[in-house]
Structures are given as structure tokens and as C-alpha cells.
Amino acid sequence: MNSKTKVARLSIISNFSLIVIKLLIGILTGSVSIISEAIHSTMDLIASVIAFFSVRISDKPADEKHPYGHGKYENISGVIESILIFIASFIIIIESIKKIIHPSETNNFFAMGFIVMFISAGINYIVSNKIYRTAKKQDSVALEADALHLKTDVYTALGVGVGLLLIWITKLNFLDPIVAILIAVFILKEAFGMLKSAFEPLLDASLSEIEINIIENAVSDYRSEYCNFHNLRTRKSGSTKYIDLHLVVPENMSVKSADEICDEIEENIENSMKNTEVMIHLESCTDNCDKCRYSEKAMCREEFQESIFR
């Protein structure tokens, strides 16, 4: 079992345990904010299960039916997880409004509620950090979405805990559903950002400007050996970044030399950015530029490179 699958399984175990505890305390206290946290954790559990299976599928090698691999399963997982967060948020808001309309008194178990929330926040903080580190190391969209689920759970659990503590001190029960609504709004904001991040690769959106600059710099390291390059296109599927471009080489350059340059550029890109697949299309220069005036038929490759700088 690889590291991605292990942390995904850890997330499932953590979420299941917290759901049981939150539901029990929520029923005992009658707190809608604790119950809303249990609902949130239930969605987190579903998301963790989805992430677990998606990272297992996405790691499968390319096959005849899926020549570009299975990476987009992770993006689909991220979209589904985002939608689940939206659903959970609306459920929390609806239940909170009901609580405002029909308020109820707290009971003797209320003090236990904020203690459980602080413990829950601590557990989720540890687990989310572990998942997030693995997600960044493996460049996994599904795990990053799962880590975001748990990260929001840390903030919401702390919010509920503080709210419950204030209610226990002030006896102002109306704060309970208000805290729950504020938490739901925060979750909606986080979900929107995650949905955008997961959905864009499904539409083959370009890589970020920073990543494109890295690619251009990696290609430019060999500018003394080619004329120019253009038509740079990028996209991402799961953790794999697909890059293709057109490289214009001197008209007298041999196929062997051109192929060697392509290999060096591809290796340079791969060293600069992990999880890449590079495709370079060669074109012969038709501008009769300075590089084209030197024929490799009359000089070795080293002499050809030196002549460019004379």
C-alpha cells in the first residue's frame, strides 16, 4: 500500500471515530452546532472514502482504453467532495434556522460539548497536516481536497467549541444556531475554492503562470541550439502535467542532433517540475537566420554551438 492510500485510509478511520463521538454528544446536549459538526464529519467521511478509491484508481498505469492514464479520477473525486461540502453546509443552515425558530434549553451535558470539540479540532489538525504533506509530495488533487475537508473541520470545531463555551458561561442559547450558520458560511467559501481547483483540469485548463514560466525557462536553457519555440500548450490530469510545444531548429541540423536536443530539453523540464510528460514537435527554420547559415555537415556539434557565440 503506497503513501497516498495509507493517509486516505487514516482519514477514513479518523472521520468515522469523530462522527460517533459528535453524534453522541450532540444528542446528549441537544446542540445543533455539535450535530451540524457531526453532519460535516459525515460528509468528510464520504469524501475520504471517495478519495481512498480515487487515489488507488488514479495510480493505475495508462492502458489501451486510457492512453493518458487515470489521473482525472482524482479531479472527479475533488469535484464530488466539493459538492458534498455544499450539501452539508445547506443542511447545517436549515437546521440552524429551525433551532432559531424553535429554541430549546441546554442540559447538564453541555459542558462536555466544547471539550469534545477542542479534542476533535486537535485530532483533525494532526491528520489534515499529515494528509496535506503527502498530497503536496505526491501532487494529489484528491488528497489535497481531503486535507481541506479536515482543515475546515479544525476551524469549525474550534468555532463550535468557543461558541459552546460562551453559551455555557452566558446561558445565551441563541448563540448555538448562530455559530452553526457562521460555520456553514465559512465552509461554503472553502468549498467554492476547492471546486474551482478540482474542476479546471477536467476542462484541460492551462497550468499556472508560475509553472509555465518554469517550463519556458527550462526550454530557454538550450536557446543556443535552436532557433525559437512556440505553440506551448499545457494541461493537467491528476498529478501528471502534460506539456507540448513546437521547437524550430536550424534547417541544416541533422535529425540525430535535433532529437538529442529534444531529449535534453525534456529531461530539463522533468528535472524542473515533477510528474511531467513532454511532447516536442520539430520544425525546420525557414527564416535563413544566423543559426541556419552554419551547416552541421561541415562541423561537429561542438563547433556549431561555439560558432553561434562568435
TrEMBL record:
Q: Which biological process terms from the Gene Ontology are attached to this UniProt entry?
A: intracellular zinc ion homeostasis
Membrane-spanning ranges: 12-32, 38-55, 76-97, 109-127, 174-192
Its domain of life?
Answer: Bacteria
List the GO cellular component terms.
Answer: plasma membrane
What subcellular compartments does it reside in?
Membrane
UniProt topology in membrane: Multi-pass membrane protein
Which stretches make up the Cation efflux protein transmembrane domain?
10-203
Which UniProt keywords are present, listed alphabetically?
Membrane, Transmembrane, Transmembrane helix, Transport
Residues in Cation efflux protein cytoplasmic domain copies: 207-285
Predominantly, its location class is membrane
| Family matches, as Pfam families | Cation_efflux (PF01545), ZT_dimer (PF16916)
Q: Which GO terms describe its molecular function?
A: cadmium ion transmembrane transporter activity; ferrous iron transmembrane transporter activity; zinc efflux antiporter activity
* Record family assignment: Belongs to the cation diffusion facilitator (CDF) transporter (TC 2.A.4) family.
Protein name, please? Answer: Cation transporter
